[in-house]
């Protein structure tokens, strides 16, 4: 489209130049022709002087030579004037031919192409405006949805609801205390789930309730991904969350695991289903979703994840990381940060890590080594 428009503009420029050349040469030719006429008069006069000098009886030849030299100069001037006229006429004819070619052939061929290109450009501008409007509408709707979600979450937080999982009369079992008793009876970690299941059945008359509630106090995760229970050196490698899943399958009932850290009453509780599913619950008692987990991420990771968040492969990866965090306490923040770093070619995240890292230690002087 741009090339056609450029060719059309250049053709119009050549046409204007040809018109200007035609006008200039047309205005120039009368003066050149008049100059030729004047030179022809001078040639005839010089020829007459030569003729008179040839007929003079007492001429010594000098007058004849001077007349002939003057005649040669005037004839050369006439030749130059005629050449100037011819050049002007040739230039005018060439400009007329150029103008005729442009008017009859070039411009008629380019005008439809220019009109078609203009229509294509106008259609693209209309499509671009429509796309921009659609994007603006989607951005407005997305902003409204996010604002509504933030408002709803804020309202839930302000309600300060009691623990929605507490049931009147629901028996709560301190799993750490039970495991400590089992450890004193020389039960190993592999036997703990079976024996705990038998103990809970006996406590409820041989039939487990609709929901078993366990409590535990966990410290920080150890490097292998399991959580070390505080004050329970007998079974430090027995993961309480996996234990809840094993109990749910063996008892064929829901098993809720309420987790504390020694300072606050509890963290987000876990709920294990008989079919092996394991979820983490929010303050309203609903299972935490991947979107809920993403909203817990640091803001800079959310910002970098935003453009890729709804891509199918990225969504699948986030779901895997979320399940690994719930079942094995893998670091969800670190996992998503690694995904973001890979998506962004390591630029944004590594720059953030570089800026936020502590100052490196100062090397000791060479003399001190």
Mean pLDDT: 77
Number of DSSP E strands: 6
Supply the helix-strand structural class.
alpha/beta
- Show unreliable segments: 160-166, 220-234, 364-369
Strand content: 5-15%
Order of helices and strands: HHEHHEEHEEEHHHHH
Determine the N-to-C terminus distance. 71 Å
Name of the top-level CATH class of the largest domain: Mainly Alpha
CATH architecture of the largest domain: Orthogonal Bundle
Rg: 50 Å
State the shape: rod-shaped
**How many structural domains in the coordinates?**
3
What CATH calls the topology of the largest domain is Helix Hairpins
Major sheet, described briefly? 6 strands, mixed
Helix content: 55-70%
- Number of contiguous helices: 10
Entry keywords:
369 residues, alpha/beta, Helix Hairpins, 3 domains, six-stranded mixed beta sheet, 10 helices, 6 strands, 8% strand, coiled coil
Any overview of this molecule?
- It is built from ten helices and six strands; from the N terminus they run H-H-E-H-H-E-E-H-E-E-E-H-H-H-H-H.
- The protein is α/β, with parallel strands linked by helices and 369 residues long.
- The chain has three domains: 2-135, Helix Hairpins (Orthogonal Bundle); 168-278, no CATH class; 289-357, no CATH class.
- Helix 4 (189-203) packs across helix 5 and helix 8 packs antiparallel against helix 9 (332-343).
- The radius of gyration is 50 Å and the shape is rod-shaped.
- It starts with a helix and ends in a 13-residue tail after the last helix.
